[in-house]
Structures are given as structure tokens and as C-alpha cells.
Design brief:
Number of strands: 4
Structural class: mainly alpha
Radius of gyration: 18 Å
Order of helices and strands: HEEHHHEHHEHH
Helix content: 40-55%
Length: about 200
């Protein structure tokens, strides 16, 4: 979602790498090229997903759209806007286990209960009906076609211009790489442990 929002022209941003000159991404075309070549390239898969995921996270959090995975101890300033995204524990597990099989050094029951606690806290925060907090169910994003209603609700909430046609193309690339990673981890682990598919 963060990359989709950054497509807006309001966000020209720089990416700096150690020992390299800053590269400015100030057009939709340059941002699409960055995302397709450096964020969601064809070689992204189950064993390197988190490497790509973390490559730009710190810089984007510093410049735009700070990202946090926990609501514990979270405080919300009335001067900022916040998007909270919930997901079922089952889909969270299915989506994440292929990238981090030890589930951040926790057991499956604890992993699922943590997601459930997050969802409950999100619902409590959203029930306060604050004008600067939006809560969405991200499960609708796990589809080959970007959910237009959710995308337009979020862009409107942040007062951004919707770029749906471009955003849906980026989203499809993200979704297809999820599916590719699922196929490849099953194939690779089957080869490692010499497990033949049943006929």
C-alpha cells in the first residue's frame, strides 16, 4: 500500500545508497521503474523477499509513511493521519511463513494470537471514530486485481490523487510474486528433502 500511495505526484523522493549519489524519483514513470526493477523484480522470491522488503524501508519511513507492525504502546498525534491494516491470523500465517519460516522466533499459536490481539486493538482504536485514523481489512488486497474501493478510500483519506491504472499494475506484480514465491518454496523444499509429489 505504501508504494501505491507514493505514486502520487506530491511525493518526489530520493533514494540514497552508501557511496552512491542520490537518485530522485519525481515522476510516476520513474517510480514505476524503481518499483518494477528494484522493489518487485522478477527475481524476488521466498528466500530473498525480506532482503528486498528492507532495502528501502528505513528511507521511506524517514521521508514518508512511517511503518510499524505493532500497536502496543502506539500513540496517535491529532496532527498526523494513520492507516491501520488488519488481516486474519490464518491469512497472515499463509502469507508470511514462506518468507520467514520461524515466524520471527515464535511458535504458530503465539504468532496467530499476536495477530488477533493486533486486530482487536485496531478495532478498539477505529471505534473511537477519529478523523485521522483509518482502519481497513487488508485481506481484499490478496487478489490479482487491486480492490478499487479500498485504494480510492485510502487515497482520499490521505488527500492523494488516485492513480488506479498504474497502481493496479504494481499491485498485480506484487501479487504475482507472492504466488511465485509460494510455488518456489514448495518446489525447493521438496527437492531439498527429496519429497516426490504423490501421483
Amino acid at each position: 500500500m505504501r508504494w501505491l500511495l507514493l505514486l502520487d505526484q506530491k511525493f518526489p523522493f530520493e533514494i540514497r545508497r552508501p557511496g552512491e549519489s542520490a537518485v530522485v524519483f519525481n515522476t510516476v514513470e520513474s517510480k514505476i521503474q524503481l518499483v518494477k526493477e528494484k522493489v518487485y523484480p522478477p527475481e524476488r522470491t521466498w528466500h530473498n523477499w525480506l532482503v528486498f522488503e528492507w532495502a528501502f524501508r528505513a528511507e521511506l519511513s524517514r521521508q514518508y509513511f512511517y511503518l510499524e507492525h505493532s500497536l502496543n504502546g502506539a500513540t496517535f498525534s491529532p496532527d498526523s493521519k494513520y492507516l491501520i491494516m488488519t488481516i486474519s491470523p490464518e491469512l497472515s500465517y499463509k502469507s508470511y511463513v514462506k518468507f520467514n519460516v520461524n515466524l520471527n522466533n515464535t511458535a504458530l499459536p503465539k504468532f496467530k494470537s499476536t495477530i488477533e490481539e493486533f486486530n482487536q486493538r485496531a478495532a478498539k482504536i477505529a471505534s473511537k471514530e477519529s478523523n485521522n485514523i483509518m482502519c481497513i481489512n487488508s485481506e481484499k488486497l490478496f487478489s490479482p486485481v487491486l480492490d478499487r474501493e479500498i485504494y480510492e478510500q485510502v487515497t482520499a483519506f490521505f488527500n492523494l490523487d488516485p492513480c488506479y491504472n498504474v497502481a493496479t499494475d504494481i499491485h498485480k506484480q506484487w501479487y504475482n510474486l507472492h504466488k511465485k514465491a509460494e510455488i518456489e518454496i514448495v518446489r525447493d523444499l521438496s527437492n531439498i528433502y527429496n519429497i516426490q509429489p504423490e501421483t
